[in-house]
Write a structure and sequence with these properties.
It contains four helices and eight strands, in the order αββαβββββαβα. The strands form two sheets. Strands 1, 2, 3, 4, 5 and 8 form a six-stranded mixed sheet that branches. Strands 6-7 form a two-stranded antiparallel ribbon. The longest helix has 31 residues.
């Protein structure tokens, strides 16, 4: 899909995010209501890393735009692939997709024989889900856009509040009922 459906402030934001993404080995792709930002798998650094490490997760930041009000919603989409194999033969796979707000940070260190012949760190890689999100939020903030929570984040907040209130009521009842029976 091309960015032709974007215009005015939305095109300005997309263009800025696209430029920032290209500098960070990410890619921005237009969608019907905005764009998505994810790691650019065509960059040799990422494609070889994914192949070597058999990465099972891919994170995409889906951005929905409300150009007249200069508001945006970012929904993280985490896709996980799990391979089932026996004796090196792949029997099947399952894919799990989560939507909402994802915080993920990891560091991978490979220890082996270095170029100088000694044992030590030969490769290391770090990943933070915030890097791709920051490409979007920094550009949006600079252009006067505001972010609002998506429905998944709002639902999670409500569920957390209901669970917290329920736990508080349970503790209070556990304290009050014994006192009333004495």
């Amino acid at each position: 899909m091309s960015s032709q459906h974007l215009s005015g402030p939305a095109l300005e934001l997309y263009t800025r995010v696209q430029a920032a993404a290209a500098n960070g080995h990410y890619t921005a792709t237009p969608t019907a209501d905005g764009f998505e930002v994810s790691i650019d798998l065509r960059v040799p650094q990422w494609s070889s890393l994914l192949l070597q490490r058999r990465v099972k997760r891919v994170l995409t930041h889906r951005v929905s735009l409300d150009p007249p009000n200069r508001r945006l919603t970012i929904t993280d989409v985490l896709r996980e692939v799990q391979w089932t194999s026996v004796g090196g033969v792949v029997l099947g796979r399952s894919i799990k997709v989560d939507h909402g707000r994802v915080w993920h940070k990891s560091k991978t260190v490979t220890i082996g024989k270095r170029d100088d012949g000694r044992l030590g760190v030969v490769d290391q890689d770090t990943f933070s889900s915030e890097v791709g999100r920051r490409l979007i939020t920094d550009a949006a903030r600079a252009l006067g856009w505001t972010q609002r929570a998506g429905w998944q984040a709002k639902a999670g907040l409500i569920a957390g509040l209901v669970g917290g209130v329920g736990a508080l009521v349970a503790v209070l009842l556990a304290l009050i009922i014994p006192a009333l029976t004495d």
